[in-house]
Design goal:
heterodimer; A: 173 residues; alpha+beta; Arc Repressor Mutant, subunit A; 10% strand; B: 438 residues; Rossmann fold; Ubiquitin-like (UB roll); de novo design (two linked rop proteins); four-stranded parallel sheet; four-stranded mixed sheet; 17 helices; 41% helix; 12% strand
């Protein structure tokens, strides 16, 4: 039973949030992790997410938006189920990061910040993700793929397509 | 999974347990883990700080400040609780060493945090990881939970009368939060905006309490120093630059990877012997020695350059965060400069006007330049802008953009001039998309 009588989150996440606000010397320190974990579950920071997080912390919705708008991982509209983040910062650029980005653009048929029509993939050009010695690198949601070549791109996409299919089957079962 | 590399010249201290399953607590203990924390519990605060001073360990985040000295600044008595804060926000382009530490040796970070807490009399330590490092955060959280189960964290740690808690925290994407005061703001649930100094964190830090904030590599080094002895550690490096550091070799190098080399190791040797030389046997054009904010060096400047804070400083650059970016002779330096500055423009938090406006102007000028629409006046304008950003901001992000700009303009002026008057980029490759910046 969550401290919130009406929650939009799963019981597991609601319980996690109950613990999270008590974890720090100050309740508000839970704000950024909560927003990120809520986004992981809901897909983005919807108005309902912002309202509940604000209530849980005890600050205004405006305050939540003010903080959330600062952080690049937090978003206010849905991304694809698999958000492909291609690093093109210097170390990745020197080893072909832009060719990787271009290949994803061709294969998915969307530009950076775009979402595929089936909602499965979104594409983003991002700043350094901390995989410089294993460049070029990308992140798909939180998974890293290192030492890429453009020809590896279709395989990565197929891998996530199969993953999504398997998930869909489980849901129907 | 990031590939581990090895070279005979390496001196493995911090990376000693990499690839050995030390993320598992029992394996970590088997490999000598948590003995240093026990020793420090027995020896006490003053002894720890003296050991740190004697080790000549300097901050691995980039500033290179003496760790022992930093710890000694924390007042002994404090009405407010004191905190240890571990900076694992690793975001400086070129830097990926903390990635490996969290992956392979998370207990070293926890043990170092405990020792830092004992040194300054803190009861709580925070380990902050950048939001992109979610899989690493899960590894660290598992390690923390295991340490609680063993009684190494929590009440009466290791059966003594001392309490110590570790709290993990995730960021959510912001380079600026790697700056110490912005990190504290972020941890307090706010926008990551820097605070004016003084007061320094050692006096007024997290939640207003005295706080020491150290880079994750610095903290992970601490238990090793205690185990091997401060003098033995210091002897590995050069004068006033104790020990080793994790150098992240990247870019146009044959064998990129994270190598642990003694402080003062020759940069040319690092590229040609450890890294196997410039990729494809091409020629070296330039090296960025310590992450993207450090001024670029020319091949002739690295001939006899020892990689420690003082020598790289003398050469007009900085040892920074250990990210060594190798650039070959096929690279357009205007494009490289644009991508470097594009990053700082994107990451400027906007708090200080010289940084917010300066990075934007620089990016716009470089974009125009790279597209072939630059004018000779743009070169002096960029120079003027960069010089006026230096030292005029709360935090060093403005400097981080200005310093490399000044170096690019000075050392590669001819390349900038080659882009003038609508001339196409001399390095443009067929079929490669034009650079757009995020």
């Amino acid at each position: 039973m969550s401290s919130e009588s009406k929650t939009i989150f799963s019981p597991q996440l609601a319980a996690r949030f109950d613990a999270l606000v008590e974890k720090y010397p100050v309740r508000r320190s839970a704000l950024i992790p909560m927003l990120l974990y809520a986004q992981d579950e809901v897909g983005y920071l919807s108005d309902a997410v912002i309202a509940e997080v604000a209530r849980r912390i005890g600050i205004t919705e405006l305050d939540v938006r003010n903080v959330a708008s600062y952080y690049s991982l937090l978003r206010f509209k849905p991304a694809g189920e698999y958000n492909i983040q291609v690093c093109t910062n210097i170390c990745c650029m020197l080893r072909g990061g832009y060719e990787i980005l271009e290949r994803f653009r061709e294969e998915l048929g969307v530009d950076p910040k775009g979402v595929t029509a089936d909602g499965l993939f979104s594409l983003e050009e991002v700043e350094c993700i901390g995989a410089c010695s294993w460049a070029p690198a990308i992140q798909v949601n939180y998974d890293f793929h290192d030492e890429l070549k453009p020809d590896l791109v279709p395989g990565i996409i197929d891998g996530y397509r199969s993953k999504a299919k398997a998930k869909g089957k489980n849901k129907n079962a | 999974m990031p590939r581990l590399v090895s070279h005979p010249d390496e001196v493995k201290i911090v990376s000693r347990r990499f690839g050995q399953g030390a993320a598992q607590i029992d394996r970590y203990i088997e490999l000598g883990g948590y003995e240093s924390a026990k020793k420090c519990l027995a020896q006490g605060s003053e002894w720890i700080i003296n050991e740190m001073k004697a080790s000549n360990l300097r901050g691995r985040g980039g500033a290179g400040f003496s760790t022992g000295m930093k710890w000694s600044f924390v007042p002994k008595q404090s009405a407010k609780p004191k905190y240890v804060l571990v900076n694992g926000d690793e975001s400086e382009p070129g830097t990926c060493k903390d990635h490996l530490i969290f992956l392979h040796d998370p207990h070293a970070v926890i043990e170092g945090t405990i020792i830092a807490g004992l040194a300054i009399g803190a009861k709580v330590g925070f380990i902050y990881l950048r939001g992109e490092y979610r899989y690493l955060l899960e590894i660290v959280e598992k390690a923390v939970a295991d340490a609680y189960l063993k009684g190494f964290l929590g009440k009466k740690i290791f059966g003594t009368d001392t309490d110590f808690d570790v709290i993990t925290q995730t960021g959510a994407g912001a380079y600026e939060v790697g700056e110490e005061s912005a990190l504290m703001e972020s941890l307090e649930g706010k926008r990551g905006i820097p605070r004016i100094k003084p007061p320094f964190p050692a006096v007024v830090g997290l939640y207003g309490g005295p706080t020491i904030i150290n880079n994750a590599e610095t903290i992970a080094t601490v238990p090793h120093i205690i185990a091997m002895g401060a003098t033995a550690y210091s002897d590995v490096g050069t004068q006033r630059n104790g020990g080793t550091r994790l150098f992240c070799l990247s870019g146009h190098v044959e064998r990129p990877g994270v190598y642990e080399l003694p402080m003062g190791y020759n940069l040319k040797k690092m590229i040609y012997e450890v890294g196997g030389g410039v990729a494809g046997g091409r020629k070296l054009k330039a090296v960025v020695p310590g992450g993207s904010s450090t001024p670029v060096l020319l091949p002739e400047e690295i001939e006899n350059l020892g990689m420690d804070f003082d020598q790289v400083g003398k050469a007009g650059s900085m040892l920074g965060s250990g990210g060594v970016v190798v650039i070959d002779d096929q690279t357009c330096m205007v494009e490289f400069a644009l991508r470097t500055i594009g990053f700082y423009q994107h990451e400027s938090c906007g708090w200080c006007i010289p940084c917010r406006e300066g990075t934007d102007w620089l990016k716009k000028s470089l974009t125009r330049f790279h597209a072939g629409f630059g004018s000779a006046a743009d070169i002096s304008n960029m120079q003027y802008l960069a010089e006026n950003m230096l030292g005029r901001t709360f935090c060093p992000l403005g400097d981080a953009a200005a310093m490399p700009t000044i170096a690019f303009l000075k050392k590669f002026r001819k390349e900038f001039e080659d882009h003038l008057d609508g001339k196409p980029c001399p390095y443009a490759k067929e079929g490669v998309p034009q650079l757009t910046v995020v």
